[in-house]
Amino acid sequence: MIVVGGEALIDLVPAAGPTGALLPRPGGGPYNTALALGRLGAEAAFCSRVSADGFGESLLAGLRAAGVDLSLVQRGPEPTTLAVPSLGPDGSAVYGFYVEGTADRLFTLPPALPAGARALALGTCSLVLEPGASAYEALLRRESRRGLLTLLDPNVRPALIADPAAYRERFLGWLPYVSVLKLSEEDAAWLGGGVGDWLAAGPAAVVLTRGAAGLTVWTSDGAEHSAAALPVTVADTIGAGDTVNAALLHRLAGSAERPGSADWPDVLAYAARAAALTCTRAGAEPPYAAELGPS
User: Fold this and answer.
1) pLDDT per 10-residue tile (average), the chain, 295 residues
2) Tens digit of each residue's pLDDT (9 = 90 or more) over 43-90
3) Which of the chain's ends, N or C, has fewer CB atoms near its CB within 10 Å?
4) Phi/psi at 33 (nearest 5 deg)?
């Protein structure tokens, strides 16, 4: 089982046309990752705190339809977090957030993950907003020490980070507990440092997504591999990076090899295909396994 921890929220996506209407769509980096894992056929569980309001019910319904285990989901009466993405000409998104008093940031550390858990993924808003951020950090440290494969996607949202210097320091403190660090070029530029620094801190592999230029991985044994992006007509890029997370985890957690010795050309090519399909659809709509062809 692959456990994904973090927020589930509602993206208010701008509709086409002159009215400026905002359409509610399920979202949140961890939520999208869990949804994508379920659609890809992985055994996945979502670990979060979700509102009991109508939005929360719809979020869980989406995961349930994808076959994601919800036994680790905590519930609360507080409202669901809202995110408002503004889309650029290339389909990229910049986000504003409504997070005060919302349910997901009140997550508490679960006593244990299921016995069959093999991997844990964390990232995005959930590692910023307290008090939940400290609980997710404790989960990362505990499960890494138990030997789980861990993936961190910082998926930086500067609008939520009041003290960038403190966040960057905290990020470096996570790396000894991370097996795979996945981040975008924008994340890398904002965080500072470089691949060599991050690998030296602990991860076995660093995966960098580069938009239309594809993906590249560097491993702790000095290897480097890349995969080209597939040419597609882009509706928007919402959820593409989260789909990459799911594809990486699906391939890596299903292999007996550790990340440093994985078949990275195959892993990256699979992730590139999955992300490309996500980009052809408005909002975070990751593909199903059958859409990707033979594994």
Assistant:
1) 96 69 90 97 97 97 97 97 76 78 96 94 95 98 96 94 96 98 96 94 96 93 91 82 95 74 90 90 84 72
2) 999 999 999 999 999 999 999 999 999 999 999 999 999 988 776 666
3) C
4) -65, -45
> Is the distance from CB of 18 to CB of 225 less than 8 angstroms?
no
* Contact criterion met (CB below 8 Å) for 1 and 38: no
Question: What SS3 class is residue 102?
Answer: coil
From 156, 192, 197, 158, select the one nearest 175 (Cα to Cα): 197
What pLDDT was estimated at residue 257?
59
Q: Tokens 């993924």: give the residue.
A: 121
* Dihedral sign (CA 195, 197, 198, 204): positive
Asked if 135 and 142 touch (Cβ cutoff 8 Å), the reply is no
- The pair of three-digit structure tokens given for residue 95, joined into one six-digit string: 């986000």
Angle between helices 132-145 and 164-174 (to 10 degrees): 20
d(CA 1, CA 43): 5
Residue whose entry in the numeric block shows the structure tokens 């490309």: 276
Total residue length of the chain: 295
Question: Tokens in use for 152?
Answer: 């961190």
The 3-state DSSP class for residue 235 equals coil
Task: Quote the CA–CA distance of 150 and 213 in Å, as a whole number.
Answer: 26
